[in-house]
Amino acid sequence: MEMFRPVALDRGGLAGWGLSAALVCPLEGGGLAGRRLAGLGARVTLWAGLDAALEAVLRGEAGCDLLMVDCDHAGGMALAVQGYRRLRAAGICLPVMLVSSTCKEQIFPVRLAGPFHLRAPVSAVALQIGLELAFAPPVRD
Predict the structure, then answer these.
(1) What is the dihedral of CA 31, 79, 85, 132, to 10 degrees?
(2) Phi, psi for residue 66 in degrees, rounded to 5
(3) Strands 43-47, 66-70: pairing kind
(4) Is 137 helix (H, G, I), strand (E, B) or coil?
């Protein structure tokens, strides 16, 4: 496990400021997704495998506000969706972002009705929108 955070502390407009993100990806620095998350102000913890990250979240040991999975590294989109369902079945309502090069359509669910599907390489704009939607205050009906 590796953690990093940007040193430039300009808080204006940082959608991820103060968030703790668990990122499942190769541990070589977190790649573009890790750099983009950190650039938006998130504290990023890297996990080498999906199962290890899910177990830590399920046991309450991950201490994260967001789970992002590099599906190309973690066994594919279908396996990551199964992991998302495991979390929901255990009663854990945590924003989950699934990043994949096979993603044909990006999905930004309303009120965390499902996982976010982002195309790899993840763009700064898609990540910014996803974070804003994931952590937006509840809307009154």
Answers:
(1) 30
(2) -150, 140
(3) unpaired
(4) coil
